Amino acid sequence: MAKEKSIYSCTECGGTSAKWLGKCPHCNAWNTLVETVAQPPAGTAKNRFASLAPAAAVMTLSEIEATDIARMPTGLDELDRVLGGGIVDGGVVLIGGDPGIGKSTLLLQALDALQRAGMPTLYVTGEESGAQVALRSRRLGLDHSQVQVLAETQLEKILATLDARKPGIAVIDSIQTVYSEQLTSAPGSVAQVRECAAHLTRAAKSGGSAIVLVGHVTKEGALAGPRVLEHMVDTVLYFEGDTHSSFRLVRAIKNRFGAVNEIGVFAMTERGLKGVSNPSAIFLSQHSEPVPGSCVLVTLEGTRPMLVEIQALVDDGGPSPRRLSVGLDRDRLAMLLAVLHRHAGVACLDQDVFVNAVGGVRIAEPAADLAVLLAITSSLRGKPLPKGFVAFGEVGLAGEVRPAPRGQERLREAAKLGFSVAVVPKANAPKKPIEGLTIHAVDRVDEAIAAMRDSA
Ligand code: TYD
Ligand code: MG
Fold it and tell me: Which atom of ligand 1 is nearest to the CA of 105?
């Protein structure tokens, strides 16, 4: 194939350069030049009449027929839940996650189920050989699987295969291994990932195949390659969880065809990933007796309330005490410690403070604040919270406790799982009592600390 000329364009100012430079010659920004395929100059045979071609007709919104999106359920209920009901024709999904977390496993299971349901599928593997994929499918008990496998990394060949076979769904595992002949950059580089994803997205939209791109995650937890990848695709899913525990969460970060922040919960077994349909209690550790520094949070993940144990350890620190968090935001932790000191008189100034959300789950919602504060206070004082205690609520800088969305649902879930005491924001207090649940409705952080002491 004849190589088309590539140029380098600046992501800041759009200026171009014939060769790679560390500094953009136009706007002097550093490290902004990215290789792109040069557009043929205007006036060449290819696009001489482009400006004369009729543009798509302009219509009013009401004239455009609103067709319902056709979806194909994958057969894995928890995956369908995050996708918003199933795979959409021509939809492009990006799925990211740490190595070894189960991306390939999940997608192979989904492809096999779709193939069995009659959808032609294609699994493009760039990381593993066909034999390795076959070995995995045997391990998963997918004998006689009719999933088509292509071990290929060159974009042009992948596109040709997509065009020839027109699968209903194709998985590209992974986008970082795919490269285009038209660029000289190495596979996995920003330029290659962006170019290849753009071509594959276009192929999906024009050919009607759904495409799933597997993406690697950098050390910082973002999808490797440019963030533009997330803008190009319809759906972005992240796999999270602790590789040492068997539970895995798949979270929708972006979804043009469904709700975001919906999660699917899976357990990794020796025969692959199994959906967990009632996950509300898996992120609790089993303490036979209450221990200091542990508070159960009722969090809301998508449409489902879940109970997650928040653990804190407060211990004598050195001259510069440490503040570390796993699964929770560290900046928020620093803020909460300041609020705790200023508005509730609980000081951890010379103490190391560690907090952890059990089970490798990542909690982003501010409604976790109250549980974090109570766990820290409990650890500092060496006093456990009573058995059956839950909390949720956002904490503000002025020491106020703000309501969390859908408080009633959270409380009902806690009651259903046998929890008996809840500390919640005043605005979330239910109008009618919930059977089996004693509720302390609080307005301020110091009231929450007092309620925790009173119920102990
Ligand atoms: P994999 O799906 O290859 O992860 P990724 O594609 O995200 O890198 O690997 C998942 C891990 O799960 C791997 O360490 C082996 C393990 N595993 C099981 O426990 N059970 C199984 O049935 C399979 C196929 C893998
Ligand atoms: Mg893999």
Answer: 2
Mean pLDDT of 36-44: 61
Residues 370 and 443 in one domain: yes
Together in a domain, 352 and 310: yes
Residue 59 inside a domain? The answer is no
Q: How many domains does the chain have?
A: 3
Going by CA atoms, what residue is nearest to atom 18 of ligand 1? Answer: 270
Q: Whose CA is nearest to atom 11 of ligand 1?
A: 100
Neighbours of 56 (CB within 10 A): 5
One domain, residues 258 and 311:
no
Indicate whether 50 belongs to any domain: no
Whether residue 46 lies inside any domain: the answer is no
Q: Is the CB of 139 under 6 A from ligand 1?
A: yes
Which ligand has its closest atom nearest to the C-alpha of 273? 1
In a domain, 316, yes or no: yes
User: What is the phi-psi region of residue 84: left when phi exceeds 0, alpha when psi lies from -120 to 50, beta otherwise?
Assistant: left
Q: What is the mean pLDDT of residues 432-441?
A: 93
User: How many whole angstroms separate alpha carbon 31 and alpha carbon 406?
Assistant: 45
**Domain assignment of residue 243, given as a range:** 71-277
Q: What burial class does residue 42 get, using C-beta atoms within 10 Å of its C-beta: 0-12 exposed, 13-18 middle, 19+ buried?
A: exposed
CATH number at residue 268: 3.40.50.300
Nearest to 298 by CA among 401, 397, 423: 423
- Domain match, 116 and 152 both: yes
How far away, in angstroms, is 127 Cα from ligand 2 center? 7
Please work out whether the CB of residue 244 comes within 6 Å of at least one atom of ligand 1.
no
pTM higher than 0.85, yes or no? no
Distance CA 32, CA 10 (A): 5
Whether 219 and 231 share a structural domain: yes
Residue 295: CATH number of its domain: 3.30.230.10
> Does 157 lie in the same domain as 112?
yes
115-144 pLDDT, tens per residue? 999 999 999 999 999 999 999 999 999 989
Residue from 105, 129, 135 whose mutation best tests the ligand 1 pocket (most atoms within 8 A of CB): 105
CA nearest 392: which of 366, 368, 373?
A: 368
Write the pLDDT tens digit of every residue in 250-287. Answer: 989 899 998 887 889 999 999 999 998 877 777 787 77
Looking at the chain, the whole-number percentage of residues with pLDDT higher than 70 is 93
pLDDT at 230 over 50: yes
> Model confidence over 177-206: pLDDT tens digits?
999 999 998 888 888 999 999 999 999 998
Same domain? For 79 and 224 the reply is yes
List C-alpha distances in Å: 399 to 54, 344, 375, 454.
61, 8, 17, 20
pLDDT, averaged across the chain: 88
